Amino acid sequence: MSTTTHETHGDIPAQRDAVPQAAVLPELRPMWWEQGMRARADAGLLGVFAEMPRLVVEALRMSWRADRLRTAIVAVATLASGAMATFGLLATQRVLVELFAAGPTPDRVAAAVPALAWLAASIAVRGALGITTGYAMNGLTPRVNQQAERRLFEVTTAVRLDSFDQDDFADSMERASRGTDAVIDLIKGVMNLLAGVVSLLAVTVAVVVIHPLLLVALLLATTPNAYAALRAGHERFQTYLQGSARRRRLWVLHRLMAERVSASELRSYGLRDFLLGQYDRVMGAQTDIDLALARRVTTTTSIGAIVSGLASAGVYVLLGLLLLDGRIPLAAAATCVVAVQAAQRALTQVTFQVDHVFAEGQHFNEYVMFLERAAEHLPTRRVTPAPRPESLRELAVHAAVHRYPDREAPAVDDVTLTIQAGETIALVGENGSGKSTLAAMIAGLREPASGRILWNGRPLAEWDRAALGDRICVVLQEHHRWPFTATTNIAMGDIGAAPDRARIEAAAAMAAAHGMILELPHGYETLLDRTFKDGQDLSGGQWQRITAARGFLRDADLLIMDEPSSALDPRAEDTLFQAIRGRQGRRTTILITHRLANVVHADRIFVMHDGRLVEQGTHDDLIAAEGRYAELFSLQAAGYTGSAGVAP
């Protein structure tokens, strides 16, 4: 295995002593899909900044939909707070004018009292507005977060199954999840930016009135710092954007080292040092990247701060020269000092908020872009309502082909077959022969690249999708272990019908699960997840029974069972297949299994090899043909009888 390092991309650092270089997994090296991320990250600052108005509008629209009243309160209170800052500056200016006027001190103080009262009032009102804004924002934040996250989940639960086969989709989804948190931060930044702009406009007027050169000097003093902040924010986002695959790898390693499901095998094979070594390599790369980013950001912001500091000193030098030259009176100079300080604060606030809006806007942009791109992965919508499918009479597959994006050879290659209602048919073949992929296409989970799958003579896509789904049930080989009670786990098979306890127990009995469930600490109400209190673990065979019960509950026209008994003991397996045979002649069943003794009674057996349908017929027909099925059956039979040869 190569020892070449990849410091240019910053993914795998050179020479980590903890683990030999040969131990680096291929999937932990920089991969081709990261090139696109780097290209996007290299987009210019102005090009990304041009997207901000659109993103701000989208974020405000989302906030408005989430809570109109609180959004309006935050907007009005924030702008009013900016106006109060301006009003306070004007009051301060009036106080200084009165105090620097000619006349006895008591008279000057008395003349300044009304302005002092207005200044105190403006400070009090601004404080009250700040409390109002905080109160409204506290109520708005969870509502906006909920709406943003729900929109994300609405998409992720609706996209086609093949979307999850694509690495770029997974990376994009990972970045979009960060964007949901950026929505409310973007809204806060926009509101604060508006308040800063209002204050800045008022202060600008005051400074210009004193002397126009002061405004030019202020801009020169603030612009370098502002650009440095934006440049640093863009650097941070560039690094974030390039790290999608690396963050997902770290997430996987976190799960492998800190979850119960992997704990036993980790200890059994002594994988602790190996996984820690992989973590050191990936996290070491991340640390190197973070340190390099910190150096670049510190350099950029330091240069901006130095230039701005020198220019700020120049503002006060200019003010002193104007005062000494007699171009502005002493009262105006004092006011100018306050105005300059206020202007610097306003410019700093605006600069900070622009940087904040820019940074959060980029994260929010990933969220928006994912939602837009995900639309391409959604199932095709019909313009006119699709008809509801009637009970299955015939299921036909015509020249179906399916390809996975990372494979050249098709997983299913030009398969044609027909199944009649009430038949029990079996799909058999060696691993990787295309059985599960073909079944997924028949179930409507995957779409054929070419060819057609017909339900009663009409393509699946032309039927009402939800209604068709109610007539099909799939028991997957790689089933998910849902962290709910046994009752809920089975009821999920027909969740829309809210099945009663009698139906649930009957389905469990068909899958040999009823007695096993009753032996759990809380019976059917036992939580099947040890992550939570009072939760219980199930063995692989016990979970397989729960999954089969879920499939039997629906009593669908078409039941597809993919390796339903691979982890069952002989008694449970016999009960399961008796239930499957009980559907014969009444409901249609597609059975995928490597245990060929269980398909002897199937009406027809379809033999797959390298994605193609190579044999079909009854068990007796295929044994007599002495082809691939007969060979596989003979091998299994020999394992039971201790002799070679084709079993009868």
TrEMBL record:
Residue intervals passing through the bilayer: 71-91, 111-129, 193-221, 303-324
Gene Ontology annotations for the cellular component aspect, listed alphabetically: plasma membrane
Main location: membrane
Record SMART domains: AAA
Membrane topology according to the record: Multi-pass membrane protein
Residues covered by the ABC transporter domain: 392-635
Domain ABC transmembrane type-1: 72-354
Pfam families for this protein: ABC_tran (PF00005)
Keywords of the record: ATP-binding, Membrane, Nucleotide-binding, Transmembrane, Transmembrane helix
Location in or out of the cell: Cell membrane
Record GO terms (molecular function): ABC-type oligopeptide transporter activity; ATP binding; ATP hydrolysis activity
Protein's recorded name: ATP-binding cassette subfamily B protein
Species this chain originates from: Actinoplanes teichomyceticus
